[in-house]
């Protein structure tokens, strides 16, 4: 089915009819299947016929021909639709292929993905070729189109141009515009962004907001501009405000915002007992967050926190499919839908023992299957990070800025006045201030400052894992920072920790320096190792991976390090520009 996306050709549709007419056998027959019927909101027992990747019949009848058909008696199990993650960032050390393979084994068989990394790292032709390749995997992959880079790029218009936005919005795998991290620009009069929103709405595609802390008036304005949903509610009152303004709301449970239990408690206290416009999302967390599963974990949390069982499943299936107008394909078990089905021991246990994705077993009786072929990453432009430039210890490691950056939590940073002596080769371990550098991946510019609150015993640290793909260097000892940087170059990208001239930890990211080609279980081990090393050296927050990614993102307060320099988010000004090398 690689030629097109679920618009079955006439030939295929005729074959489906032949199965019903008894002229052709289904490929898979599920008998005595107790399944969740969302139309009736009941558990119903039926027989399910599957041909290729499609459910061709659900009912009491059995097929006339079963030659070569696999027959599975589902007695003792309950079946639910494959789960949908409505807000995936599939580039958090893992890559879209490895992430989808991993999450499908936990029953999440449809992902709606951020395209920001593809915009920043690949040209349009390569990106669309990559999307086409991902049609061949068992997981159903959809995307959204960014209208802003959520940072200050030197040449943002070359990445997010009118022609690029139009082409992405027209792509059949793209379901929405957004997320609108740059919404203040829209309120300030950015008519190009407003035009893109209008284009998305004209194409019957959704607009997702990103409105943390937004007032009722702001939410109303953004609804008038065209926003349809938001995933940034952090209290029950914020959920209520969004629902009252007509939004659909994603309730988040992520590595830095594990809000779901609190949100459910508070919305129940407010009397909210209707769930049709509520979704669940993990909001693109790092690998270790998914060690126990994906959307199945959130469904279980919802059930444990008072959501009726059927509504809990609907919040990760049909609610999302209806919202995106893909319920003719996903989100329920019914004739004509894609054969994404999870097999459970009972309705209270959302973690599946077996999983069908596009009619293929990706997990069978607790054992994950290896079905999809490897990705030829270089073919799509995901080469190793090659840095053909050097850092000079004397010239590049000068720190003379009057103020630095202080971490308030995992992702929020504020300015602070530097009081320590930064003119030496090392900073004392008695305080939590480190040298900090952001360097262009092409080696053309740099910005040096001091970072407070990241660690107090970290000698040298280098990472190519950033929101823009540029290089971050942190540490107490300039020589160890250089050691870590040089090792990161040798790896072809990644995260490296050095201490007194030795490499003590590394996480290679060989796909353009921002993603690994390893499996998610392997990455979980490597990420946990890096996190442990950082914690031992004074990192006191929950998620250093998010910290690295968000140093440059200007949709969060208060001060950011960007390609244009040290940036004041609230006043939208560059405080200190980058220095050309």
Automatic annotation (TrEMBL):
Pfam families: Adenine_deam_C, Amidohydro_1. Residues 78-362 form the Amidohydrolase-related domain. It comes from the Bacteria. Keywords: Hydrolase. One of its GO terms (molecular function) is adenine deaminase activity. Its EC number is 3.5.4.2. InterPro entries: Adenine_deam_C, Amidohydro-rel, Metal-dep_hydrolase_composite, Metal_Hydrolase. Gene3D superfamilies: Metal-dependent hydrolases (3.20.20.140), Urease, subunit C, domain 1 (2.30.40.10). Residues 411-572 form the Adenine deaminase C-terminal domain. The keyword Transmembrane helix does not apply. It is an enzyme of class 3 (hydrolase). It catalyses: adenine + H2O + H(+) = hypoxanthine + NH4(+). Belongs to the metallo-dependent hydrolases superfamily. Adenine deaminase family. This is adenine deaminase. It comes from Peribacillus asahii.
